[in-house]
Design a protein that fits this description.
The structure holds two protein chains of two kinds.
Chain A (H helix, E strand, L loop, with lengths): L1 E4 L2 E2 L2 E2 L2 H16 L3 E7 L3 H7 L6 E6 L8 H15 L3 E5 L2 H14 L3 E5 L1 E5 L2 E8 L4 E5 L7 E5 L18 E3 L31 E5 L9 H11 L2 E4 L1 H5 L20 E5 L5 H7 L4 E6 L6 H4 L2 E4 L2 H14 L1
Parallel strand pairs in A: 1-4, 1-6, 4-5, 5-12, 6-11, 7-11, 13-14, 13-15, 15-16, 16-17
Antiparallel strand pairs in A: 2-3, 8-9, 9-10
Helix pairs in contact in A: 3-4, 5-9
Chain B lengths: L1 H28 L10 H13 L2 H6 L1 H28 L9 H31 L10 H19 L8 H20 L7 H11 L27 H9 L5 H5 L1 H4 L6 H13 L7 H5 L1 H4 L7 H5 L7 H13 L5 H13 L7 H10 L12 E4 L1 H6 L1 H16 L4 E2 L9 H5 L3 H18 L3 E4 L2 H10 L8 E4 H8 L14 E6 L2 H5 L5 H9 L2 E3 L31 H10 L5 E4 L2 H14 L4 E4 H12 L1
Parallel strand pairs in B: 1-2, 1-3, 3-4, 5-6, 5-7, 7-8
Helix pairs in contact in B: 1-7, 1-9, 2-8, 4-5, 5-6, 6-7, 8-9, 9-12, 20-29, 24-26, 27-28
The chains are: A alpha/beta, B mainly alpha.
Chain lengths: 324, 611
């Protein structure tokens, strides 16, 4: 049995659970073991029915008042009991902050192997091996956990895709499982969660960004960039001079003194590419730069570069995008 | 009877003086000892220039400084006279009848006149002109002291007019002597204590600007956390401050409207010490916000006429904060970059390799190469600055200098050291020293002034001594015998030159860049604040990465850019990658057409076009 531990809060599923289910299905392909999803919490009925859509053997709910809000002591006690009852070969978890908090404690309590931050699976000599980065990602290791089962494995967020998780023809059965948790033994007393006042614009989550530099020349011309952003369903951003001039709000500044972004597409319009701007967007998947100065440093890191007048090129791109 | 009365007056004056001085001496004696007498010849020379000849007092404020010099020299001249009068008053010895004394007395007349002129000038300046550096309020105590000094001189001059033995003559004598004793009682608690201690403080000031001894982690040193950690020299500094405000008006942060005021830092130290707040955190004394506003440009320390060192307090306190995890967020990101990728940008080393290959650079080999060119973080990764390095390479190749680069470099550690992350600095420094030694490097040329200062002066504290020069110095010498490119007056290009703080102020390199500019056809329009007292670009001390650098006040880079623009020159030449980044940012924000050019690019361009 492969056991996937789902993560939810207040009846809302953390979507990374689906990534872990996808990983479990790949592991099941190697070991031919059936999969069960374990849903711990205080009131997890709706989350369990949501997860029952997955192609798994069963969904097991572990409900206990002491499991909400989350505490490492409560989770360790409940999961120790539940894992003992189910007796799986592997326990798979998403590598979330919550998992990082309790999984080492749980594995140590059971004296079992724990492999963290796994990005892929492999078969090594018939046994499943778990691939994980080492030394800041400079090397990867294939880890084959030793010792008695279950082996605990956590999966890096984004290593598996949510849409790769296979759905079943009919919903999987849901089974409640009783666990013993001594509420008085829980030492942590969590306060209600709070969220720090978030910046009005969180560019770090944007998939596409249209970014404007001095080459835009006048405040009125920002409209052209905004139109392109609209056509591409992208966020608008800028380099320091544009925000300094007040043409766009400070919160839209990208760079070492602004936000650090990593979109799939970064379109740099009239941005020369000073280093302090580059370090704020170097993580972008694809960089397209439009600049009339062929020597502009932005072309050093651009995947696609267009040397020319952005006032001619941008309207043409807008037209092309709309024409699709 | 009269002698007894004078004795009583004398003892009370001296006791009041001694008790107050003793408090201060005790506070210095219990402190960690940071006094040093290293490099005595330099200290003696500086003592003569700055104390005897009043160089630093006069240089920045010629009129007020000269008047101060008159008062100072007058005081020194009067020392013997005052001693003789005290010996007489106390009934110990009467030398007033000696023939030499009469001659000495007459010789003092021009000094007395000079002091009188000087002190009246300073009195008017302080009470009515009121320059901003002297503070918001008129210091009543300073006015009293000035009037005291004037009284001393007037009563001295009156001795030539009053007949001996008359009541008026006796009264005049008593006024003179009482004022001296009242003066003694008054000065230890006032800024006039500098009369007594500033010669000592100047002598004890480190010969090196911004001297920050390495922390010894074996001894669990973590920097300055509370008032009791302040070293003996820092405490002496606090009691020496004359509150002239030179540090304040030269501070770029203060000039841009920020909360940091170096003079306030010194006075806050003084108050905290006297109030016995030994356990109070320095972040509370100075405010953390203020401590992070310092660019470490060194203007405060360099302009101080009484030997105060501000940087050890400012950076020492940052060390204490960083050790407790209290660094601002933007530094956390930079520290991560340094830790993971050994460069401030957090970029991968393949990018440096790409540049090294495309520029055709060879790996340094002592058998083949005369010098090592140190690229630095900017040279390794900033495409913009790499243009300037290509110019340097082209000049070196033209003059057949055999040079190579290291296969790999780490950041020299300057951004870590100046922001108080000493542990990271030492890791980076030790790694680089190992690599430089292993490569057999004897001489280094670099275009980064921060690398010059850190690899030169700071690495020496690890016992590693290597010759490192800025490209401006190396190239100036290299091209000295080059044909003069003197263009005719109307063909000369009008430029202004921005001295980088770490080159002009720390390195004293001010003539070479100008010599190169002039040699290659530039007409230099000097900006305000230049040479060894430039106004900072705003990048130093980790502030290159500050996200909220604009608050409060304006950006330091914008203020500097306005100063450079005011010269009327359309070309700004500088010689530091970080000055270049800051000023280009300011230029773009101002929407100005001003061109920013690195010195090497300027020289190489002229070499090619004028050849």
């Amino acid at each position: 049995m492969i056991l996937v531990v789902a993560e939810q809060r207040d009846g809302r599923l953390n979507r990374t659970t689906w990534e872990t289910i996808a990983a479990a299905q790949e592991l099941a392909g190697l070991t031919s073991a059936p999969i069960a999803i374990l849903v711990p919490g205080a009131n997890v009925g709706s989350v369990a029915s949501e997860l029952a859509a997955a192609r798994v053997k069963e969904v097991v709910t572990v409900e206990h008042a002491a499991l909400e809000p989350y505490t490492p002591d409560g989770f360790t006690a409940a999961l120790q009991d539940a894992v003992g009852q189910v007796g799986p070969s592997h326990v798979l978890l998403p590598h979330t902050y919550q998992t990082r908090d309790f999984a080492p404690k749980l594995a140590a309590r059971l004296d079992r192997a724990l492999v963290t931050d796994v990005t892929a699976l492999k078969a090594v000599g018939g046994a499943p091996a778990f691939v994980r980065p080492m030394f800041q990602g400079k090397l990867t290791a294939d880890v084959v956990p030793q010792g008695p089962t279950p082996h605990f494995v956590t999966f890096q967020i984004g290593a598996y895709r949510v849409d790769k998780a296979l759905k079943g023809a009919s919903p999987a059965p849901i089974r409640p499982l009783g666990v013993k948790v001594d509420a008085t033994a829980i030492r942590e007393k969590p306060e209600p969660p709070f969220q720090q006042a978030k910046q009005a614009v969180d560019l770090s989550q944007a998939e596409r960004i249209v970014s404007v530099g001095r080459g835009i020349k006048e405040q009125a011309n920002i409209e052209i960039a905004k139109k392109l952003a609209e056509a591409l369903d992208a966020e608008i951003a800028a380099s320091r001079p544009i925000c300094d001039a007040g043409w766009l709000p400070m919160e839209r500044q990208v760079g070492s003194s602004g936000q650090t972004v990593a979109p799939k597409l970064y379109l740099a319009l009239g941005i020369s590419g000073a280093i302090q701007h580059l370090v704020g967007m170097k993580g972008s998947n694809t960089v397209v730069a439009i600049n009339k100065d062929a020597d502009a440093p932005i072309f050093e890191i651009a995947d696609y570069g267009i040397v020319g007048d952005l006032f001619e090129i941008v309207p043409a791109i807008i037209e092309a995008v709309k024409g699709q | 009877m009269v002698t007894l009365a004078f004795w009583l007056l004398f003892v009370s004056g001296v006791t009041a003086f001694t008790l107050q001085v003793a408090t201060r001496v005790r506070l210095i004696a219990v402190a960690p000892n940071t006094f040093s007498l290293a490099d005595l010849p330099f200290r003696v020379k500086r003592f003569v220039l700055d104390v005897v000849l009043q160089r630093r007092t006069i240089r920045e404020r010629p009129a007020a400084g000269a008047m101060h010099a008159l008062v100072f020299w007058g005081f020194v001249a009067f020392a013997g006279y005052t001693t003789v009068e005290f010996l007489f008053g106390l009934g110990i010895a009467d030398l007033t009848r000696a023939g030499w004394f009469e001659a000495y007395r007459r010789a003092l007349v021009p000094f007395a006149a000079a002091v009188l002129v000087g002190i009246l000038y300073l009195l008017v300046r302080r009470a009515f002109v009121r320059p901003v550096g002297l503070g918001d309020r008129v210091s009543v105590e300073s006015i009293v002291i000035a009037l005291f000094i004037a009284t001393l001189m007037i009563t001295f001059l009156l001795t030539f007019r009053l007949d001996e033995g008359t009541t008026a003559e006796r009264a005049n004598w008593w006024v003179h002597m009482s004022v001296i004793l009242a003066f003694m009682a008054l000065i230890p608690a006032s800024k006039h204590f500098h009369l007594v201690v500033s010669p000592v403080t100047v002598f004890l000031k480190s010969p090196e600007l911004g001297n920050l001894p390495n922390l010894d982690f074996e001894k669990e040193q973590v920097g300055l956390e509370t008032v009791k950690d302040l070293g003996s020299k820092m405490r002496l500094d606090a009691f020496t401050c004359v509150e002239c405000g030179r540090c304040q008006v030269n501070c770029p942060a203060w000039g841009a409207g920020k909360a940091l005021n170096p003079k306030k830092i010194v006075l806050q130290t003084q108050r905290a010490l006297l109030a016995g707040r030994h356990e109070t955190k320095l972040g509370e004394i100075y405010s953390e916000e203020v401590l992070w506003q310092c660019t470490t440009c060194g203007a405060c320390e360099n302009q101080c006429p009484v030997g105060i060192e501000h940087l050890p307090i400012l950076i020492g306190s940052r060390r204490g904060l960083v050790s407790n995890g209290d660094a601002p967020g933007y530094l956390g990101a930079m520290y991560n970059n340094l830790e993971r990728r050994s460069n401030i940008w957090g970029l991968g080393y393949d990018q440096r390799t790409k540049f090294v290959q495309s520029a055709g650079l060879e790996t340094f080999d002592p058998a083949k190469h005369d010098v090592l060119v140190w690229l630095g973080c900017a040279g390794s990764f900033d495409a913009d600055f790499q243009k300037s390095l290509r110019s340097l390479f082209s000049i070196l190749r033209a003059k057949r200098v055999a040079f190579g680069v290291l296969a790999k470099e780490r950041c020299n550690g300057d951004p870590a050291k100046r922001t108080g992350n000493e542990y990271m600095y030492q890791e980076l420094a030790n790694g680089n020293i190992e690599d430089l030694k292993a490569a057999g490097v004897r001489k280094i040329v670099t275009s980064c002034p921060h690398c010059v200062k850190t690899i030169g002066a700071d690495y020496a504290k690890f016992g590693y001594n290597v010759e490192i020069v800025h490209s401006s110095v190396f190239v100036e010498e290299l091209l000295r015998d080059a044909k003069e490119r003197e263009a005719s007056a109307e063909r000369r290009e009008i430029v202004t030159y921005h001295d980088p703080c770490y080159l002009g102020r720390y390195g004293g390199t001010v003539d070479e860049p100008r010599a190169l500019l002039t040699r290659f056809g530039a007409d230099i329009r000097e900006p305000e604040r230049n040479r060894d007292n430039p106004y900072c670009c705003g990048a130093g001390g980790g502030l290159l990465f500050a996200d909220k650098e604009e608050e409060p006040g304006s950006r330091i880079s914008d203020v500097r850019f306005r100063q450079l623009r005011a010269t009327g020159a359309n070309t700004v030449v500088t010689a530091c990658p970080f000055c270049s980044i800051m000023l280009k940012g300011a230029q773009a924000s101002a929407g100005a057409e001003t061109q920013l050019v690195d010195l090497m690019t300027f020289v190489d361009g002229k070499l090619k076009t004028l050849a």
